[in-house]
Design a protein that fits this description.
By secondary structure, the chain is α+β, with helices and mostly antiparallel strands. The protein has helices spanning 5-32, 43-98, 105-121, 277-284, 376-412, 415-493, 497-521, and strands spanning 129-130, 133-134, 151-161, 166-173, 197-205, 218-225, 230-237, 239-241, 264-267, 272-275, 302-311, 323-327, 338-340, 355-359, 362-365. The chain has a domain at 147-350. The chain has seven helices and 15 strands. The strands form four sheets. It has a six-stranded antiparallel sheet with strand order 7-6-11-3-12-13, with no helix packed on it. Strands 4-5-10-9-8 form a five-stranded mixed sheet. Strands 1-2 form a two-stranded antiparallel ribbon. Strand 6 (218-225) and strand 7 (230-237) form a beta hairpin.
């Protein structure tokens, strides 16, 4: 094969260009410190780099954003639960103090003041928010747990309970005793010791006070029919009474055989449904049928439907707890009214857990829902203690007042007035004895109830703490994974600068040498030999 100068020129230029390309590639690696800058440089390294970068970006999202966000949510929840624990613990301590039968009036007033303060504080931490999202309201993160101001909104509420909420309370009948004053004690009807009585009343306490009296509250339950072995739904319409009615609704005859034996009376101010003995027995007989366990049917369920439109600052919003309807207009209108939690009535209660992706195929729930901590029963139990203590203090003040009036009459020596005051004082002291016994027993029962509430809060605290510990383990593992993937990414993509520098110097020397050699060789042509 004849090698011409043109062939030598073309080969030299090709080789020089190859050396220049190598020098360019090494120079690019030197400046970028990367092995490849385009997929064609090394397809295997490029594909592996894409996968490793994806993994590193995912871990950076988890470790740098999701985990800190989840941790902040859990920390805020822990702080709120801690506050709730302190409040319930204080309630427990006051219940223990109030169960002492040797309390002075000053002791009782101190306990009453503390209970009222705790009642105002109990739900305040439930409105804790994180970055504008309320942390205890499930998916409704834009809605506060409680009403933040006095408002008027009409709700139709259906509470789903069971016989465990039924209880028995003591009622002390004092007649007109507490109406006695220095000006009217002579004209009052004679209040004798025999007029003071106490009795036990069964009740179903709903979750709210000050309910509406414009509609008829309804209790519904299922009664077992032994003849057909089926469950028949029963509905009981409640009479609505006021705490200030005369006679008091507590005075009605709820005993077996009386007119109210199979009736229910709702006292709208206190939210108590007083039950006749017969009705109480029927409700206590309700129980779930084991044959239908696992189905969307609970034969032991008792439902109470009522309306409430007067809300105070600090009242729990019903949409976070019950199947209810916000009645927008003056009357129910399906097109306008807002329905909350309708599936509750079908036996389906969705757990509104908010979960964060905190790792590859790893999720963790960060929220604790209100029903796990801020239950209505806590506030309602405190309401009972406050009402009972106020009644006892009112009777104590009346006893002190009658004793003062009796001392005045002793100085006047009016035997008729004195005799009347003595009778009223004996009645008041008897009422005080009954009231003290009632309050002591109530506070004793509330010790157990508050311990139960405290156990509930502690359980929520434990679950939140467990999630926090799991998140810390995940965070530690993510940190290790982040380091490992970044190391693999560096080993796959980063160039060895020392090696590149040596190869670049060699390429530059080769390039320069090739230029010199080519320049000398191409100076000669065929004409030099002719």
């Amino acid at each position: 094969m004849r090698i011409t100068n043109k062939v030598m020129q073309n080969n030299s230029l090709n080789n020089i260009n190859t050396n220049k390309l190598l020098q360019d590639r090494l120079s690019t690696q030197m400046s970028t410190q990367k092995k490849v800058n385009r997929p064609s440089d090394d397809p295997v390294v490029a594909v592996r780099a894409l996968r490793l970068r994806t993994n590193v970006n995912q871990i950076n999202q988890y470790y740098g954003k999701n985990v800190p966000d989840a941790k902040s949510w859990l920390d805020l929840t822990a702080d709120a639960i801690s506050s709730m624990t302190e409040v319930v613990t204080s309630m427990y301590e006051n219940a223990t103090k109030g169960s002492n039968e040797n309390l002075t009036t000053e002791d009782k007033e101190i306990i009453l003041t503390q209970l009222k303060s705790l009642r105002d504080e109990v739900y305040s931490t439930g409105n804790t928010d994180y970055a504008g999202r309320y942390i205890f309201t499930g998916y409704r993160t834009d809605t506060t747990l409680t009403f933040t101001e006095d408002t008027t909104k009409k709700y139709s509420i259906t509470e789903q309970v069971d016989k465990s909420v039924l209880d028995t309370i003591s009622y002390v009948g004092t007649g007109d005793l507490l109406d006695i004053t220095e000006a009217n004690f002579e004209n009052m009807n004679v209040i004798e010791e025999d007029h003071i009585s106490t009795k036990e009343i069964h009740r179903l306490r709903i979750s709210y006070q000050d309910v509406d009296d414009g509609t008829v509250p309804v209790i519904s339950y299922k009664e077992h029919d032994a003849a057909t072995d089926t469950y028949v739904e029963r509905r009981v319409e409640c009479d609505v009474a006021s705490l200030y009615d005369v006679p008091s609704p507590y005075e009605n005859d709820y005993a077996t055989g009386g007119a109210y034996a199979n009736k229910a009376v709702l006292i709208k101010e206190t939210g108590e449904i007083l039950l006749g003995d017969d009705l109480y027995g029927k409700l206590m007989a309700t129980k779930d049928n084991l044959a239908t366990t696992g189905l969307d049917e609970d034969e032991g369920e008792i439902r109470v439907t009522y309306q409430k439109s007067d809300w105070k600052d600090g009242d729990l919003r019903p949409e976070h707890y019950f199947a209810c309807t916000h009645i927008v207009g003056a009357a129910p209108d399906a097109a306008k009214d807002i329905v909350y939690n309708p599936d509750y009535l079908k036996g389906i209660e969705e757990k509104q857990g908010i979960e964060y992706d905190v790792g590859l195929n790893q999720r963790i729930q960060v929220n604790t829902t209100a029903d796990e901590i801020f239950t209505h029963a806590v506030g309602r139990d405190v309401d009972d203690m406050i009402a009972s203590m106020e009644e006892t203090l009112a009777i104590e003040k009346m006893v002190a007042k009658l004793k003062g009036l009796l001392e005045i009459e002793d100085n006047v020596n009016d035997t008729n007035k004195k005799a009347k005051l003595e009778e009223q004082l004996e009645a008041a002291e008897k009422a005080l004895t009954f009231s003290n016994e009632k309050t002591q027993k109530l506070f004793e029962s509330c010790i157990t109830k508050m311990q139960g509430h405290l156990d509930t809060v502690n359980l929520a605290s434990t679950e939140n703490g467990t999630r926090g510990q799991r998140l810390e383990l995940i965070s530690s593992r993510l940190m290790s994974q982040k380091t490992n993937y970044e190391t693999l990414q560096s080993e796959n993509e980063d160039a060895d600068i020392t090696e590149v520098a040596i190869r670049l110097s060699s390429a530059e020397l080769t390039y320069n040498s090739s230029l010199m050699a080519t320049g000398k060789i191409l100076q000669n042509s065929l004409m030099n030999f002719i």
